[in-house]
Amino acid sequence: MTRLRDKAMPVRVLDIAAGHGRYVIEALAGTDVKPDGILLRDYSDINVAAGTKLIADRGLSGVARFVKGDAFDRESLASIEPKPTLGIVSGLYELFPYNAMVRRSLAGLAAAIPEGGFLVYTGQPWHPQLEFIGRVLTSHRQGQAWVMRRRTQGEMDQLVENAGFRKIEQRIDAWGIFTVSLAERVKA
Ligand SMILES: C[S@@+](CC[C@H](N)C(=O)[O-])C[C@H]1O[C@@H](n2cnc3c(N)ncnc32)[C@H](O)[C@@H]1O
Q1: 73: Cβ below 6 Å to ligand 1?
Q2: What is d(CA 93, CA 40) in angstroms, rounded to the nearest whole number?
Q3: Disulfide: which of 66, 69, 70, 74 matches 51 by Cβ 3.0-4.6 Å?
Q4: Tens digits of per-residue pLDDT, 10-37?
Q5: Ligand 1: centre distance to CA 93 (Å)
């Protein structure tokens, strides 16, 4: 958000699979940069309801809204108005094995975010408890066990780069299980 303000660009946040939206809403408490708008999306009605309540509880209904939407629907992402300048995709792509889906989602983000805007994306290169989480976190597979689709950082970065972004920064935990990266939308 600071980078956008430094470039005199509007700060319009879009999270395409926000869960309850907690980390976006709470991040606002730690920054002086006030966003011009926040659009949180998720395909789960339960999350849309919980996130909408969180926005209202924090008195942010004037700046933030939560709507239902499919993170893999390219056209739906591409047509978002006003155009987001800071896209977020966190904890989503590892639920799905197919890169065609990821490409479609990233293409939608690339169509939505103008040159100079940013994308924050997470990665999970590996996990020490694959079987445990596969059997416990079954809600997104209608109760069936799932295999987390780990992507090496190289694979994730390539998908993002091919969509039209230039990676500029990365954070990683001590065990290399979770990564958070920042990329800038470059000229198409
Ligand atoms: C593991 S959670 C991550 C939530 C949050 N982004 C985070 O990082 O804490 C995955 C989220 O993706 C959402 N999701 C799964 N498939 C989706 C889709 N096709 N479109 C939008 N959201 C989706 C789920 O409802 C869930 O909130």
Answers
A1: no
A2: 17
A3: 66
A4: 999 999 999 999 999 998 878 899 999 9
A5: 9
**Averaged pLDDT score across all residues of the chain:** 96
Transcribe the chain into DSSP letters: -HHHHHTT---EEEETT-TT-HHHHHHGGG-SPPPSEEEEEES-HHHHHHHHHHHHHTT-TTTEEEEE--TT-HHHHHT-SSPPSEEEE-S-GGG---HHHHHHHHHHHHHHSPTT-EEEEEE----TTHHHHHHH--GGGTT---------HHHHHHHHHHHTEEEEEEEE-TTSS-EEEEEEE---
Nearest residue (CA) to ligand 1, atom 25:
44
CB 160 less than 6 A from any atom of ligand 1: no
